[in-house]
Design a protein that fits this description.
45% of the residues lie in helices and 12% in strands. By secondary structure, the chain is of the alpha/beta class. The relative contact order is 0.17. It binds zinc ion. The site of zinc ion has 6 residues, from helix 12.
């Protein structure tokens, strides 16, 4: 059995700040679950205060925490003192609000980053890098992803629904990967053990009902590229605070979206983070990339995924002769 943990970064909403909707799936053999869990717990231990835990959720720790910049020598304080000082400053601001509605809005806003206020900006940056390196260094992991540019004419006009298309792409590629493993095993022995796949999605994934319907249709009629052969049951929806694979795929989806949202600048911090996991996307022995597609208007993007898939614009080669 192979598990595919899937989570999205960005939203399908044309009005919000994200330029892409990215759905990523992190695939591991079920027997690897314990090792993965151990690795994630060990990573968290380095960043948690003793006796505490947090859910790895990149959108909550890869942000500016303004109170930290207002506390003198914040970086030099112990983690306990940092937490106490940020909490005190926040409490002052909650108390200063004039009505209960505003107080509640402030409490809700603070709650999002509460688990990470003892970590400096640099430490939070390293936390993301370490989570990505954990995936990058693990050769039992394979990634599958679809990144949809919301300004693509087909998306902007409503012809393509990003959530539907992303789920279709990730699911069918996962199924094709299991099919490929089966072909490989079949060559060795017709009495091979067939591997099945199970999809686990974050229960906060807002489109649960639509996804369940879409999956049922695949089960009955196949997906646009054929029959679903190996992915079994219906997608499971689980709480990401309890499932290590969902927390790791959250970090990976965030890194992919940030890389593309910031226009895939060569040498950028976002590119370096993307490169920590790029080699984990499914590819064949010839280096053809199957596991990641950037759905963007043809010839308009030169990101590493578009380059590998041959969709990047052709570079102008200068024909000026050298020398005098
Ligand atoms: Zn691209």
């Amino acid at each position: 059995m192979f598990l595919l943990y899937a989570d999205a970064s960005g939203t399908a909403d044309q009005q919000d700040h994200s330029k892409h909707y990215v759905l990523l799936g992190l695939c591991v053999p079920e027997g690897h679950w314990f090792a993965l869990n151990r690795l994630l717990q060990s990573l968290k231990t380095r960043y948690c205060q003793p006796g505490q835990d947090f859910e790895l959720h990149a959108a909550e720790f890869c942000v500016s925490i303004n109170e930290q910049t207002e506390i003198p020598d914040f970086d030099q304080l112990s983690r306990t003192d940092r937490r106490a000082k940020v909490q005190a400053l926040r409490q002052q601001r909650i108390d200063a609000e004039k009505n209960s509605k505003k107080k509640k809005a402030r409490i809700d806003k603070y709650r999002r980053t509460e688990q990470f206020i003892h970590l400096t900006r640099l430490e939070r940056s390293r936390l993301l890098e370490d989570a990505l390196d954990l995936v990058g260094a693990n050769d039992r992991i394979r990634l599958f992803g679809e990144a949809i540019h919301k300004a693509h004419p087909a998306v902007a006009s409503g012809q393509v629904d990003p959530v539907h298309q992303a789920f279709e792409q990730v699911t069918s590629r996962f199924d094709a990967y299991l099919q490929m493993i089966d072909h490989w095993k079949l060559k060795k022995s017709p009495r091979r053990k067939i591997d099945n796949g199970l999809i686990v999605l974050d229960k906060d994934y807002s489109t649960e009902a639509a996804i369940q319907d879409q999956f049922k249709r695949y089960r009955q009629h196949g997906h646009p590229w054929g029959q679903m052969r190996h992915v079994i049951d219906v997608p499971m929806f689980a709480s990401s605070d309890l499932v290590c694979g969902l927390q790791l795929v959250d970090a990976c989806a965030y890194a992919v979206r940030r890389y593309l949202d910031t226009q895939a600048v060569v040498g950028s911090h976002e590119e370096r983070n993307f490169l920590r996991i790029f080699h984990r996307f499914d590819q064949d022995g010839q280096g053809n990339l199957h596991g990641l597609r950037h759905y963007v208007a043809t010839g308009t993007c030169a990101c590493l995924a578009c380059q590998r898939r041959g969709h990047a614009p052709t570079r102008q080669v200068s024909m000026t002769p050298l020398g005098p």
